[in-house]
Each structure stands twice: as structure tokens, then as C-alpha cells.
Amino acid sequence: MGDTLVEELKNPLEVAAPLAKRMLAWTLGNPHELRLDQKQIPVPDRSEVLIRIDAVAVCATDLEVIAQGPPALINGTLPFNQGFTPGHEYMGTVAALGPGVDEYKVGERVAVEIHSGCGQCKRCRSGMYTSCTNYGQNYGEHDKRHRANGFTTNGGFAQYAVNHVNTLVRVPDDMSDEVAALAVTAGTSMYGFIELGGLLAGEKVVVIGPGPIGLLAVGVAKALGAAPVILVGTRENRLGLGKRLGADHLVNAKLCDAVEAVRSLTDGKGVDYVMDCAGTEETINQAILMCSRGGKICLAAFPHGRVGIDLGHAVMNNIYLYGIRGEGKSAVARAIALMAAKRFDATLIHTHTFGLAELPKAIQYARERIDGAIKVVVKPHLL
Amino acid sequence: MGDTLVEELKNPLEVAAPLAKRMLAWTLGNPHELRLDQKQIPVPDRSEVLIRIDAVAVCATDLEVIAQGPPALINGTLPFNQGFTPGHEYMGTVAALGPGVDEYKVGERVAVEIHSGCGQCKRCRSGMYTSCTNYGQNYGEHDKRHRANGFTTNGGFAQYAVNHVNTLVRVPDDMSDEVAALAVTAGTSMYGFIELGGLLAGEKVVVIGPGPIGLLAVGVAKALGAAPVILVGTRENRLGLGKRLGADHLVNAKLCDAVEAVRSLTDGKGVDYVMDCAGTEETINQAILMCSRGGKICLAAFPHGRVGIDLGHAVMNNIYLYGIRGEGKSAVARAIALMAAKRFDATLIHTHTFGLAELPKAIQYARERIDGAIKVVVKPHLL
Amino acid sequence: MGDTLVEELKNPLEVAAPLAKRMLAWTLGNPHELRLDQKQIPVPDRSEVLIRIDAVAVCATDLEVIAQGPPALINGTLPFNQGFTPGHEYMGTVAALGPGVDEYKVGERVAVEIHSGCGQCKRCRSGMYTSCTNYGQNYGEHDKRHRANGFTTNGGFAQYAVNHVNTLVRVPDDMSDEVAALAVTAGTSMYGFIELGGLLAGEKVVVIGPGPIGLLAVGVAKALGAAPVILVGTRENRLGLGKRLGADHLVNAKLCDAVEAVRSLTDGKGVDYVMDCAGTEETINQAILMCSRGGKICLAAFPHGRVGIDLGHAVMNNIYLYGIRGEGKSAVARAIALMAAKRFDATLIHTHTFGLAELPKAIQYARERIDGAIKVVVKPHLL
Amino acid sequence: MGDTLVEELKNPLEVAAPLAKRMLAWTLGNPHELRLDQKQIPVPDRSEVLIRIDAVAVCATDLEVIAQGPPALINGTLPFNQGFTPGHEYMGTVAALGPGVDEYKVGERVAVEIHSGCGQCKRCRSGMYTSCTNYGQNYGEHDKRHRANGFTTNGGFAQYAVNHVNTLVRVPDDMSDEVAALAVTAGTSMYGFIELGGLLAGEKVVVIGPGPIGLLAVGVAKALGAAPVILVGTRENRLGLGKRLGADHLVNAKLCDAVEAVRSLTDGKGVDYVMDCAGTEETINQAILMCSRGGKICLAAFPHGRVGIDLGHAVMNNIYLYGIRGEGKSAVARAIALMAAKRFDATLIHTHTFGLAELPKAIQYARERIDGAIKVVVKPHLL
Predict the structure, then answer these.
(1) Which of D47, D127, D144 shows the shortest C-beta gap to B120?
(2) Are the CB atoms for B266 and B205 separated by under 8 Å?
(3) CB contact under 8 A, A311 and B319
């Protein structure tokens, strides 16, 4: 498998010739089925760019897509999207430019944002492209050109993908492929803080949940000058990583009352901002109680269905909750700027690397946290 | 009762003489007990003003204060605050000026905001005086000079009250006392819209709950140019009032699926802003489902304890929830500007007027909605 | 001239057939030359709409375009744009839809914004489409699809024009064509106030310069609740119109010291916001001195070249100056919402109407203010 | 002189006893006269704190105060303020607490902001305390309790000063007195960036003028993630310091066209933000031309009187100018957070230290840049 195909792809500049070349790509079969197929290399349309995928990280939401199909299908209006290629946390090299693109050159290394809005709904017109009201309208006569690669349009578990030029961010020469693939994660953390107001210098911040987004949220918060940054979690090794990413205080919620711990670290007043990356009934309620009056909470994760929340406490204390979706407001570009300046070491959360053919194993490592796995990266060139 | 006292008070300019004069004031006895007492007329300190109360409206939260004591006591650290005077929605006439006040003159008519912050906590320093972190720190050695008249400091069910100069707003000559007393309510609605971004012209708005705040929220939203404004409620007479206050569409949630109704009025996309003035588990979940992607919700009322909320839908759709407290950001001044320009007719929600001695009856009318009561006003001069 | 052509155009639904139909359009010859030509009716591309022009107003900047060619040419890199059709303040009826457009239907009446950004520069991605950094990049290999109809792409002194769907705003049935054509002007005023913060209720506002933008700025400011609104000008008839549009105070700068007058109307403190629609050295300096500490100034007009400005006073008093371009942030949609609610009477500034063939006369009226002309409208159907 | 006095002051806790103790303080005589006097140690009033001055830096505006008297007098309504003590960039140790202060303890080290607003004007109520409309109303019957130590109330060229509690920021143990005294300067830079939007990560920034505010602006911009940061100046040694503070590019405006240089460093588009710390006609015009469309300029310095500015270019390009006054929005606290995290090395701009008696020499060094002087610090304990 693969050798001939790889041979064909050696000159990525050729790929724009319609229908000429094929690539390897993982595709959805039935729910929970993922198989390595050959697909035509996609051709970039106006304002689009063909990316040769150099690294793609496995994210928890990939597992949901593989189990349920892309979000656009969750409402059940379409059959399960067989042939769809998931994978949204990737980076690569510009391989070809569509019409109207001169912002990049072939050969440049780029990280990506997931979302490109339709450009003509109310939210897109105001810069809120991750809140595009035409989300998932990508196909046939309903194609509004919304793109969320790996969710509603083909993603990065493949050798190539097409991205809207707006989703690209240049990668500095001295940043590794693996780290650049984490820029989407860091961008999500960054987006959360942007929406909370963006001014963290001198502010008190709690991050709940030391998963990838939470750990990088610690790095971003410290980079923006927050003090103190308190990380709340339950696993000591993850908390230890948080320490290395800059957390000033660690709170193990298994060993103490996390709310009390945060309050005692803040003269009883609570913090200015809570970034909840755990998204459980318990952590959301903790977040509300950890806030000072007038504080703000970013919900970067969420429970399914209704959960019991003490919103009365939030109202009584003028607390605002921001349920964020994605990595809008150019947050990936901002995150990469901080990463390029080496303000935090994202490599700390990269634990494993596999070749493209090993994606199932990579997913297993990520899901089961085998060997302490946090971020597992697949490099398509390592077939 | 009263005659001599009233005589004494004829010249309000005399009241600054310490301990010289007395007034009538309702005070808390034990929980649920309210009695008409004589108290010394308070003396305005630096930056404070003595107000002769001309009209004071009954609010649902007054009932809570009468039952439970001021919020500062809810934590149980103090005995029930006997002697405290509730009442927070009032207006009156400047009767005396404390040191350092030259912004007003004796004899001017003023409406009030409830909150005056300590001025030296982080929130107050940034203009968020209703989120003062020294809320309720008013007494003895812990006096941080936070003031929330009718909640933590003496309020307006009396002939006189002392207000911080920051809480005053001039009342136009052609605005009645009764309407000016509703400025606090309109200010709360206004504050909600300020926090949602303030720019309503051309935006789609839902108001849930046609109580006083909800009805005036309809008036404020229309005044700011929102289109359409959809009012959701369950009582036809209240909905009818909403229509007269400017609502473009009425949705009776008893007769239809309110979420579906709102979606069908908005091309299936939902609205930009929801102001929830009902504050139940059901209405908060409706609010989340009525929002378009990227929409915002103001929680102007709230349930007690934990309620089952579908926050996942909010996160998936980048929806933000603003739990507001009070009437900050000079919202009462803004609301009065709209009322002075006759942009909405607040008199529509004023239904009954009583004298000071009739406060228990006024409360009963408000609580039991006797005779269609919405806003019941007490005029202390009508003893 | 014209009869046959008009016949051909009777069914606007046919126009999408390429090259099939022709229309009448005014076009640039040499500088200062404008002639009525036949042109092919343009075909809407993806996300575009063909508009049958029903009314187009003459604006002072049209005169500059006719004299100098479109702004993109001012840098001298291209020859004078012969064949270009100016005219940017128009409204009309949807005549055909390009691919990907289902937001409008053929036959709907629409007002327009001037600018549609490239959608892929930094400013466009953040919602600042009037500040598109690819401004004027519309042609040939440099086509970035920026559109500023009447400035850099063909405009509305014609029977038809093509607009990006993002530039359209629905017109209510009871709003006349003439008034809807003024929505761009009102939108510019609105955009200025949006950029100043958008919250005018209860704020003190000065508008300098009772030209069309200034007069509608008075209307918009009052509609948003500003109090007082002070209009400063030099012509009594224009000031009188300002009064009818809602100005609380009129200051004739020929008859008094305008700065002193504004200060005396504001207790010596100055106002919160100044909208300068005159744009002279004198008025900008007046604006700075009319502001209170912490005040803000919108520059909606401007002088050419360097002028002597007392920026030191601005810095000493923490005053900000916002030089606005166009009508961004969906300001036309917001303005139309206020106009639809009849918050101000834009018909007051519409003074004359001509047919398409009379454009030169319409321009003369507007330029020379013949017969008290303020806004002169051309209706292409009145050939 | 001095020895006995110093003896008296050994126990700073005793100073609150009224009239009991005296201190050394430099005071204004006639214009340009400064003399070392004995004064009573001031007693902190409500919400105030007595600070033992440990370090005070000389600022260019001190020279103006010494020449002209405090700003409040510039209007000529009062005689030159003999006996006034200038000096506003200081830090020290809490020596006594006034009533109502429990936020600090005696013995804590604190840096200061200059401004404390009246707390009851419109600007103060909205958190804009540096734009207090009662600026300079500090004395006699007009005392509105505005405080700008070193400008309108006694400052830090003395052994002690009284500060409003709101102006204090804790100093970390490992930050030297000299550096903490520079926090006001860094706070001014920080305030500028806050007003420009606060989100610098990934944004392009120019700083013009490598004086103390400009050099620390480079440090703050890099700390917040700006990339690139371009420093424009004329002296190579100062540019070199800018490099050490993090500037990515240096532009010597004597050796090239600074506008062209900035444009060539930014693909011809210009930068997002310009911080002008030079404040000349030339640099302000450069700033306007260095901005991209939609860019923003902070004027942190200013020329006197009218200067020729090309505001037309600003309006045509939707450029905003922010004339900032002071160090509002808790900017000193934010700056100290970045300094505490060692994001930039403020010690680079501290060049000389003198004792209190040597203030005239310190001023001479600062004014004449003797021996490469940038920031000259006086330490009152080094008599």
C-alpha cells in the first residue's frame, strides 16, 4: 500500500491538475468505522489553499465524529456521512493556491483554524466566523461555503486537505510540526480568554481541568500576565504538567474542597476569571462559586443534556458565562504569536507520534491515555 | 399618629441639625413583621444627600427582605436586622446636602439607583459599582461604605432616606412621581441591555416574562430600535400591556411551544438577544434555544438552588449568559433619558397608589396581584 | 434614446442571461465629463445580486469621483477610469440572484451599503469590512473582490447595478424610495455613533455641520436617546431643519463663540461626544474644546492636507478621535431600523427629484444648493 | 538639618498622631525654585494611607510643574502654589492607615498610581478616574477629593506622602525600590495599550520615541505578545536599549524615511497600532502614515498648541487616535504583574540614583541626560 501513491505525490505543485492525482485518507464507514482509502486530492477553489498535511493531532471530539458522523448530521436529516475524512488539529505545507490567493506561497508552513464562515450571514459579517449561522451548510444547493474541516468538511487524517485562506497562520521556522499542530488547541484556550475580555495581566485566573485545552490555557494565561493562575484537577501528573506550564497554584479537587481552596488563595474573594475545561455539572458549579462578584466564566467544555446549575448564585453576583465554540477572533494566530515567543512550552503536552497508517493506534492511545498519552500526533509522511 | 411629626418636618432644610427631628419609617421587627415607627431623620455624611421620599414602589424583592432580613444577613452571621427600613424603588426631593456635594440643590426632584459601591474595591474602581466586592459591608468597624438602600442600608418605606450622590438622577418636571419611582425598574432592564452590548437598533430581541422588569424591557428595547421585539408570557392581560409598550409579537407560552414560535418568527434562526425576566428552569432553557448562534442571554431573574440547564447547547452555539445584578453602569440615568423623551409609557405598569400608613395593603396588592396590580406605589405624603 | 432599451428591460428576471440585455448608465469620460451611455446589464456572480436602481441620491463625494476618478486611481497607478459609473447612495429592487444567494427574493426592495470587503484580509475577518486592506483591489489579476460601488466598482447612476449580498438591507413597505436612498447617509451617521461606543441614551452630544450627514446624525442621536443634542452650524435654515430632526439646542457659530455656547449649555464641562460633520481646521479644534475630559470625537468629514490641530488639549484631557470611513458594522441596517420605527423624519432633507437623464442638473442643484437643495434624488425610471 | 528629624521618624507607626512629627520635603518657592523644607507629616484621612517614600524617579513633567506650578494653576485662577511638593513617580512602604483601610498593612511595600478621582463625577463612576471632571478640585470649599500627587496634591520628593488606597499596588519582594518607582511609567505605557484594545498578541506595533515611556512600551508590547514590535527613534544608544527590551526591528529616523521603513517591514500595509511617545508634529503624522487601514494610534505625548496634522488621511483610512492622560484602568497594577513575571527588564532604563538632598542634581542629570541618564531615582533615605 502506498508506495506508488507516494511517488505520485512527490511534486505537490502538480496537484492542481484536476483529477490527476490520488492520496491516502482515512474515511468514515459506518459509525465507529474508520478505514484508510484512496481519494482524489482536492482542488482548491477561489480563496482556498491545498495543504500537504505534515502533522495532525488526535482530539477527543474526533472520537465523537467517528462515532456519530459530523455535527451537521447529528440532527438526523442526512444519512451517516460515509467517505468523510475527520481530523481537525493539523498543520502542513502549502501545496497549491486557488484563485485569488496571494497571501501565501507554495512551500510555506502553516497551522490552521478549523472554521471558515460563509462570509454572508450576520455573524460572519461581524467577524464571528465560528458562530456562522450557516454552520454545516456545505453541500449541494445548500452550499453556503461554511467550512469546519474535520467536522463538516473533510479534515486532516489524510495526506492533503483544502483550507480557506482565512484559516491559515504562518508557522515560524523553529517551531516543530508537532507543536504547530497543537496551535488549534492553544487557539481555543486563547479564544476563551479573548472573549472574557482579553486583559489578563494582573488578573486572578482559575483553570479547571488539566486536559490539553486546560493545560494550554494555563500557558496562555501566564503568557498574558495573569497572576495568580490556579489549576484545578484530579490527576497529580497532569497538575505537575500545569506547574511546568506556569500555574502558580495547584489544587487537587480529590484531596480538598476546590472552591474553598481557591477562595483561601484569594483572600476569600474568588478570582476574576474561570476557564472551565472539564465541563461537568460539578465543575461548572465550582466555577460559579470560585468567581468573585463581577467575575466571568468561560465554558470551554460542556456536559450533554440538562445539568443542575446554580445560576441564581451567578445572577446574585453579576457573573457572566461564555460558552465558546471553536477558536474564533483569529485566536490561533494570537496563540502562535505567544508560542513563537516561547512564552509557554506546548511540547510538554505532546506525548506520542505515529504514522498515518497507525491512526487507529494513535486514537487508542489518546482515548485510553496509554503510557500517559496527552496529545498524540500523526505524521502522514511516516506512512 | 403622625400629625405632630409631620408638622416638625415642614421645613426639610432644618433636618441636618443632628438629632433634632424625627420621621415616620416602616421597620423590620421579626421575620415577616413590619411596623410603622418613629426614627431620627438621618444626617447626610460626606458625598451624601438627604432625600424626602415622594414615591416608593413595592418590588417582589421587598417581600424577601421582609421575610429574611437584608441580604447581608442571609449568611447568618448577624441576628435578624430589627429596626431596618426596606424599600428601594423610590424617588423624592433633595432635602439637605452632605459635605462635598454641590451637584444638586435642595428642592430638586431626583430618582435613585439602589447601589453605591465602596469606591475602593477592584470592581468599584472599574465602574462596576453594583458588583462591589464589599457588598453589605456597611456597619461598625467593617463599614466599607457600600450602600444598597433597602437591602443593606435603610431604604425608602419612610419619609426620608440618605443617598450617596452617585445614586441620584434628576427627574424632568413633566415626569410624575409615580413614574420616576419606576426608574429603578426601567434601569434594571436598561442595565441588562447595556451588558448585552447596548446596540439594539435593528437587532432581534425576545423578552421572557411580562412582570415589571420584562414589560419595561420591552419598552427599552423598542426605544433603542430593536426589531422585532417578541414578548413571551402566559397571561393575556400582561401580554396586552407588552403590546402597548411596543412589542412587535406576543407569544403565549401556555398556548404554543414558545421556542418554536420564536424560531418561526425569525426564519428558523432565533434571535440575537434574550432577556429572561422570569428566571425559571423552563424559561432559561427556552432562552438558550431561542438564541441564534452567537446570541446572548441576560438573566434578569433567577431560580433558587440548582436547576437543570442545557449548557451544552449554549456552548455548542457560542451563546453567552449574563447574570445581572441591579442597575449598574448608570443605567437608571439612561432609562430616565428614554422615559423623558417619552419613548415608552411607564405609567402603563403603575396600577395603584397608597399612603405611607397603607404599606401593608400596598404589599398585599402587589403580592396577590389584587385588582390587576402590577406596580403599586406608596406616597409617604399621603399619610 | 432609451425607448427600445426600456422595452427590453421590462422583465428584469431575464437579465441574468449573459450579454443579452443593455441598460442606460452614466459613465466617466475624461475628468469632469459624464455621459449617458448604454452598457451591458451586469451579471451577478457568486454571493451577488442584481439591483434595479429605483432611486439614487447625489452626494458631495460623487463630485470628487467625477473630477478625479475613483479613489483607487488617485495614487496615479492607473489611467483615468473611463467608462466607470459613479453613484453610491441608492436603493432599488432585487432583479436577479447570483449563485449562493437565497437571503433575498427577486422583487424585494433593498437599500444598500457601499462597501463589501474582500473577506480575506485581517480587517474583513474581524468584521471591519469598510477598512478592508484590499480597498480598490477589484480588477484583473489583483481582483480581491473588494467592492465600493460608485467608488471603485460601478455604482448607481444607472438602471442596474450589481451588489454583494452583504451590502443589502430590506426596505419596509411604507418607506419611500427617496428616503431609502438616504439610508447610506443615515448609516454613516450611525456608524460614527457605533464607533463612539453606541450608548447614547442620556449622553450629551454635539453635532457640528448641518449637512446631510450632520442633520441625520441629529436624528440618529435623538433616536438613541442622547440628551441634549446640540447642533452647531452657520446657516439658519439648516439649523432649523436640525431642530425639526430633534436637536435640543441650536448654536449659530457665526453669531457666537460656539465652544463657549456649548460649554455654557453643559455646566462648563463640555459634552461626552462630538460628531464633526464639517471637517475643517476650525471645527475639529472646536470639537476638541467642546469635549469634556474623557470625551470622544467622531471625524465624519475631513480637511485635505495638514491642518493646525491642538492635539495637546486632546491628550491632556484623555480625548479620543475616531476618523470614520463609510458605514461599517451594519450601520445602514441599524439606521433603517430607526427610520422604519419613524424615530426621525429623513424626508426633511430630501428636497428635489429628477429623472435619470437629468443627472447633470441634479448634480448642479446639489453642488450649488439651488432652491435650498440638500439631498437631490435621481429616479432612473423617470427617464 | 535632618538628623534629629530622621530620628523622630524611626517609628513610622507614630506618625498618625496629629501634628506630632515633621519630615523633609522639597517645596516650590517661586517658579523654578525648589527648596528642601520641613513640613508636617501628613495624616491619612478616610481611605488614605501614609507612605514612607523609598524611591522617587524624576520625570520630564516634574520640570514643568517646577516651572509653572501644578496644572490646576495653569489657568491662572490661583497664585503660584508656594509650598507645594512635586514628584509623582514613587514607591514606598505603608507607614500608617487612615480610617476604612484594611486592604494593606503597615510595612508593606507599594508602588503608586498618580491619580485618584473624586469618585462622584460621571467619569469616575464609570471607572475613568484619570479623566475625573473634577481634576484639580482639591482645596477649600471646592475640595472634590481629586488627587494627582505631584501635580495637584503633594507628591513624592519628600520623606512621606499620603495616597488614596486606590492608588496603591503591592510590590513583590524581589523587585527593587528603583524598579518599582518606574511602575508609573510602565503603567502609562500599559494604559495606552489597554485603550487601544489590550489584545496585542500577534499584532504589529510601532513605538515612536525611545524615552522612558517608549522604551517600556516596547517591553510591555512584547510582553503582551505583539509581533513585530518596531521601535522608531533617532539616538542609537536608546534604540539599542529598545532592542534589549524586546524590539524586533529598530528604525533610526535620522538615517531613513521612517514611514517607508515601517511599511517595508509590514508588506506595505502598515501596522495595527502605533504608540507615539515623542509627540511632535512630525511623529504624529508619521504615526498616521504607519498605520494600516483600521489601525489605531495612541498619543502618549503631545506638542503644545496647534500643529499641522493630516487628519484627512486618518479619516480616509478609518484610523483612530487615543490621546491618553495618565495611567488609568489599573494599568500600574497590570504593568507590575508583567514586571513581577520578569517579562521585561525595567532596570535597563534606570541609570542613576541620588539621595534626597541631591534632588537638584538628579533633576539636572535627567534634564540634560548627563552621563547617558534616562531614569534618575532619588532615594529619600539616602539623605
Answers:
(1) D47
(2) no
(3) no
